[in-house]
Amino acid sequence: MPMSDVYTILCVEDDANLRQLISEELLSAGYRVLEAVDGHAALALMAQQLPDLVLSDVSMPGMDGFELVETMAAQGGELAQLPFILLTALADSHSQVRGRLLEVDDYLVKPVDFDLLLAAIAAKVKRRRRGDSLPPPPAVPGRALLLAQVAAARTAQASQTLLLVKVDTYLALTMRLAPAEQPLLQHTMLACLAPLAGSGQVFTWSDGCWALLLAEEAAAQAAAVLAQRMTLEVGGVSIAYTCSALCIHLDWQAPALRHFEAATLVESCALHLNFESAGNPRRFIELGRGDYQALQAARHAERYLGQALKSGELTLLFQPRVDLLSGRIVGAEALVRWPHADIGALSPGAFVPAAERSGLATDLDHWVIAQTLEAVTELVSLRPGFILSFNISAQSLGRGVPAFLNAQLQAGRLGLAANLEIEVTETSMTYLTAAIEADIAALRALGLKLAVDDFGMGYASLDYLKRLHAEVIKIDRSFVMDISRRSIDARIIEGLISLGRAMGCVVVAEGVESAAQAALLAELGCRFAQGYHFYRPMPLAELLSLLGTP
Questions:
Q1: DSSP characters for 292-342?
Q2: pTM higher than 0.70 for the full model?
Q3: 73, 99, 127 — which closes off a domain?
C-alpha cells in the first residue's frame, strides 16, 4: 500500500508514446504514476511498492496483460486484490470475455478516450481507498430543532437572521464519493459554517442543505465566505465545488411575515433558494422586509395554482399596441392575471415562476393559448389586421407547447395564424434545441410571427435571432423609462432600433408612460409602442368596445 496520500497508478504499456500520454493525463488528474513496459517489469515494480490500481495493455511482448492478471491472482494476498483495468486494441468479444472471466474490473478499447479512462480510474480508486481514516457522520441537529427556535422567535416577535446554504450540484458531487466518504463533505461544510453561527448551531435542513441563525451583521461575512470555491480533500484528490445561499432578515412584528408559520417560512425560503440557484451556481440571495409579500405570494401560488387553473380563477387582460405615427390601435398583448386569489391579486411575477417550479408551466401555457385563440377570433372580426401577442414560458419551449399551438390552429383556425405573435424572452432563447426550432418554424410556416420579449436584457447571441428569423423585437421598459433623462438609454434604444431594421424586424417599445417618451421614441424611428401612457391592460370586452368606436 502506498504511504503517500496521493493515489498511485501503475501504467503497463509497451508503446512508449502512448505510455507517456497516459502518464501525463494521470499526473494532471493528481495521481502518482509508475511505469512498466510489460508484465514482468510490472511485477518487479509491485514487489517494491504496491500501487492502488493497475492499468495495463493486453498485447505486450514477454508477459501480456492477461498473463499479468493471472499471475497476480495466483500470488494471492494484496496483489490479487488490486483493481485492474485492461486497455486493448482488440475489440473482439473473445478478448473481452477472457478479461471478464479473469474478473478484470474494467476493459477499455483503444484508441484511448481519456475522459472515459479517468472516470473509470476514479471509480475504481474510490473503492480502493484502503487505509483512509474516514470519520463517521457528524452529529448535527435537524430541522425540528431549527423550527422550534424560529417558532419561539415568532411567538416572542423577536427579530432573527436565517441563513440557508446548499451545495451546488450536490447529486453530482456525491456520485463521486463512496458512501463511507460522504461524511467528509458534511464535516467540511460544518467547519465552514460553524464560525458564521457564532455561539449558535448549524442545522441540517435536507441532504446537501444546512441552516443557521446568525447575527444580522454577519450576513456580509457569510456572503464573502460562501462566494469562495470550496475544496473537499478525499484520498489525496481535491474535489472543487461551490455553494449558494439565501439570507433572510426576519422581523416577526411585520404583518406580512405573520402570515407564515415557522415551518412554512423556512420551506418557502429553501424552495426559493433551490429554484434561483438551479443552473446559476454560487448565488447569494438576501431578502428583507420588502420581500415578505413576494414570498407569501409564491407560496400561495405553488399550493393553489393548479386548482385555480381548473376553477377558472385566472383571466386574460389586454394591453393595446399603438402606432406612434397615427395613434391607432394595431394590436395588443395578452397578459395573464390572477385577480381574486385568497391573499389578493397576484401578478405573473409571482405565479409564473411558481408554475415552473411545480411543473404547471405547460398547463398554464395551454390555458393561455386556448383563451388567446378565443379572443383573437372576436378581435379580428372587428379589425382584420389586428395582431395579438402572448407569452409562453421558457420551460414550455421544449415541452410540446409549440406543437400544441400548431394542433389548435390546424383544428379549423389556420386563418388566425397571421394575427398571432408568440413571445419568448431573450434569455429563454438559450433553451433552444433543433426540435424546438423545428416546432417554431412550423408555426411560422402557418403565418404566425415570433417576437423576442425584453430585448436587450438577456444574453442571447445574434446567432439565435438569425436562426429563429424573429419578426418582432420588443424593447424592454427599463430602457424606455429614463429615455428622456438619460442620453445613454436613448443611444441604446436607437441602436436596438437600427439592429431591428437591419434584421427586418418590427420594433415595439414597452412601458411607455409619458408623451415625452412616446415623442422621443418616434423621433428615434420606433413605430409601435405600448404602455400606461396609451392604455392600461383591460378586459376583452373593453378592448372590443374601443375597437368598435369610430
A1: HHHHHHHHHHHHHHHHHHHHT--EEEEEEEEETTT--EEEEEEEEEBTT-T
A2: no
A3: 127
